[in-house]
Design goal:
By secondary structure, the chain is an alpha+beta fold. 19% of the residues lie in helices and 28% in strands.
């Protein structure tokens, strides 16, 4: 906080910038949205002034975060070039005059706006720092990425043993954002993936079987239906069904080795060994590879084991931030079709 009549310390302004940039810029871990921000970065130590443009850019960035998270903006007034910026107020509109009291050598801002002072900035930050992963639902879009009609997403022959498929989600990066100090940096694949999830991104998938006959195919149909839709989030995995998922396992836990994301076993006692298992890993460059396994482990209870004759398919979709912060759309490609 700055007192009336005092100068703003560069360290105070720079603290505001660093806190905002950590959320909005390149960030690290679960912080960072990957935005090319409006603020011009931290002021150089020893500078004699912080310009209206710098304050205006900082206000724009704070309002962008508030809008993304809470669907509101702050009450900080618009800072215009020429404004006399005070501790608790600044000129209304584009005003630029003050009155000086010669005996006391104090200044009074003409036509003051009490929402445009330096001290109006700091109190807006705790709300957006409390949980940077907060996002208003209206700023997210659900987007279909793979459907049963997608090439490689359906298997129509009878089968025994194991079917597998691999899907790679590529986070291309390559866009420009800023670090905590305000310096421009280029986002890597890893950064893009973090920004996708940090802004509310999710990856969803499900599997189904159609046109099956016999008790084994019926159990597979029920198993896949009861698996539900699996959703991988930043710090958790959920399901709309009864699959076993790692409730505390999310994007941030992925490594370059496959880990089980979800698994569902058959319900008929004769086919209880059969299961649908989904694994995921990073490819070493920040992209995610999902491996889907339809495992027909039954060997006959008793007698000869019959084949599965239903058509197996895969569906994938995503949730992505699309406004006011828009995240670059990742691409989904089959590394291996269902086979």
């Amino acid at each position: 906080m700055v007192s009336v009549g005092d100068n703003v310390a560069v360290t105070e302004y720079n603290d505001y910038v660093a806190r905002v940039n950590l959320i909005l810029g390149i960030g690290s871990g679960k912080k960072g949205y990957g935005v090319a921000m409006a603020n011009t970065g931290q002021a150089v130590a020893g500078t004699t002034e912080i310009t209206a443009a710098q304050w205006a850019g900082l206000r724009t960035d704070i309002n962008l975060i508030h809008s993304h998270q809470l669907n509101t903006t702050t009450s900080i007034g618009e800072i215009n070039s020429g404004n006399i910026i005070g501790a608790d107020e600044s000129n209304v509109g584009t005003g630029s005059t003050v009155l000086r009291d010669n005996p006391t050598d104090t200044f009074t801002i003409v036509n003051p706006d009490s929402n445009k002072g330096v001290n109006d900035f700091g109190p807006t930050l705790p709300a957006i720092e409390a949980d940077p992963e907060t996002v208003h639902a209206g700023h997210l879009s659900v987007e279909s990425k793979i459907t049963p009609a997608t090439s490689g997403a359906t298997y129509v022959a009878s089968w025994s043993g194991t079917l597998t498929a691999e899907v790679k989600i590529t986070f291309a990066g390559g866009y420009t954002c800023k670090d905590n100090s305000g310096a421009s940096v280029t986002a890597t694949n890893d950064d893009h993936r973090r920004h996708f999830f940090n802004t509310g991104g999710e990856i969803r998938f499900s599997s189904a079987m159609a046109n099956g006959t016999g008790t084994k195919s019926a159990d597979w149909t029920a198993m896949l239906t009861n698996t539900g839709t699996i959703t991988l989030k930043n710090s958790a995995t959920t399901t709309t069904g009864t699959a076993t998922v790692g409730s505390g396992f999310g994007n941030e836990d992925l490594t370059t080795s496959y880990q089980t994301v979800a698994q569902k076993f058959g319900s008929d006692v004769l086919y209880a060994e059969n299961n649908f298992k989904v694994e995921a890993k990073l490819d070493g460059s920040g992209n995610i590879i999902f491996k889907f396994n339809w495992i027909d482990a039954d060997t006959g209870d008793p007698g000869t084991d019959e084949a599965v004759d239903g058509d197996v398919n895969l569906t994938m979709s995503q949730v992505r931030a699309t406004g006011p912060i828009t995240i670059l759309d990742p691409t989904y490609t089959f590394q291996q079709n269902i086979q």
